[in-house]
Sequence to fold (454 residues):
Amino acid sequence: MESDSQWTDLAVTEQWKHWQRNFWLGVINGILFKVGITFSHPSTVLAVFLTKLTGSEFYAGVLMAVAGFGWFLVPIFFTGWVESLPRKLPLYTHMSFGRALGWLWMIAVVVYVAPKFPTYAAILFLLGYVIYTATGGISALAFMDIFARTVPFRRRGAFWGLRMFWGSVLSIGVGVIVHQVLEGDWGFDFPQNYALLLFFAFITYVFAWLSFFLIHEPPPIWTPPIRSWKEQWQMMVELWRQRSDLRRLVKVKLLLGISLIAAPFYSTYAVVKLGAKPSLLGSFIIAETIGSLLANILWSILSDRKSNLFVLKCSILTAILPSGWVLFLTLLHYTFDLQILYLFPITYFFLAFAETGVAISFTNYVIELSDEAHRPTYWALSNFAESGMTMLPILGGILLHYVSHSVLFSIAFLGVLLAIIGSRGLTPAFKTVTQTSKKPEKPEQIGQKGAKHD
Fold:
């Protein structure tokens, strides 16, 4: 923890003058987004909705691929332009309107198209989700840059932890609501019950966007000139060539991404193969929320007090638990004919515990590796390499026509095991700082100063 004098110095500089206000607005933004996501979680609520709507798990796989396309692939085409913007908050604002339109489109499809034309409704629903995630991926570039310039280095773990901790607290109640709505206690039948959940999610998203609009964005230290796509591509290639630490990180994330092949099918496996009622999704959400709640306490403290790299390695280690647990339950069910549904929600506890740690540490670790001017490029490049892995849920949906769910879960297990082995080669971000600080660099060059300026 910093001394009192350090906190005073931080408060009086121009960049950090409003950091406490920005910190709490960002926390409120995250809490509301966590609640909204709980109402409409892609791998539980939306995956089961599309499976029940079409009678096929294939569309659940497409949903996860669409999410990856928007979050990971689209931003890479906008990084040079985003970096050239003197202020990033207007971009975040404009993209929020695009996200709102995409979500309203999805609600309209569920209400007016799904009852009569389920297959067309699934396609149109996915189109709306493309709009929502693509604009969200672009806004994430702005969000991450603003975050790095408004939240002090030793408060970043607390920032993510508070966002998800209190979001998880509220999400316990949301899980109860989801259970009641899908059970029919609110008087809505399929598919109107899912439209109601989407509407609840939309309302919380609107308030989340509004809270971030109030952020006081400090000016960047230096804004690079706008680059052509060719120049941007050359810079990314050179960045990839120079930064072995970034390459190692991306390779580990790719291996971890193999687990995506099973992500949307834990919930559908419970419903389609084990006979669970859709209302059991409420229990999944509650278990996931409790996992996230406890994980945020642990990972955020370790992030600030130990290191983001330590948290990343530990959370990757725990990521092997979801697929391993489901494989164990499957063994109990088919070998010993035991009833396992009451144990199945623990899967989502493990998922949340691991995903929370990866989310907190990966984001902060990338920011530590990046330099001020090219932070959006680092962020987009670290995610772009993973974009191809988002096609794995589609492959998983196709494979389920030929193999059992256990095969998918085994593939996910193996992928995480390889990621655990690969993560041993990751090194502290600031080790590079010490080694390269002897050679000063011009602002327009690719920096290796990590986040020391923060």
